[in-house]
């Protein structure tokens, strides 16, 4: 066994002198090579040589002669046709549906059985026969409105429905002090908006009305033309928030509101 001190170091062979090659004779050297040697020499490329373009960093492996210039559409048509004509590869292993891993199953929680004893009283018949307005008045008397949080309050407002005309139209027909009315983001139909506008025209004290973003998004030509006629008869309305579909109605309403604003400005500065 040899130790590190007695280990023999292999001796390297002396480098032999390489004869110098004259670059002027490179053509003669290439002419003296056989076709096999030229092919081997032609395939000896450095793939990481940055001095060569990428298309020349490997040898040409196609021995066929070119059939013509490159035509992308013809190439794609040929590949598609060839793919359709070729038969599918035979599967060595037949397909078998296998379920691997653990199948997730939701945890089934036992339902708690709550036995509720309901005793019918005379109040049940009264509450069943009560109208919605009577229930609202009863809730106000009992103070139930104070038990609602802000989220529940606004959720209740979103579900309010105003039928054609509705209580607002009746109240507006008697109004002499209200200046601004906002019923946006609600369930007001086009007919209800027309009824509200008719009620506003009785006393003509309202200056701003907002009825945009309703559940029925499209009002229709009949409703929009009716609103144009009613607003044309109103001389106090200054702002009207609504989404109109037809440009004619939009322009005519805008012109009437502009006229009302101009008349108010003239009245404020003391002009006739």
Automatic annotation (TrEMBL):
UniProt superkingdom: Eukaryota
Protein name per its UniProtKB record: Tropomodulin
Organism (species): Magallana gigas
Compositionally biased residues, Acidic residues: 34-47
Any one GO BP annotation for this protein: actin filament organization
GO cellular component, one term: cytoskeleton
Keyword Cytoplasm listed: yes
Keywords annotated in UniProt: Cytoplasm, Cytoskeleton
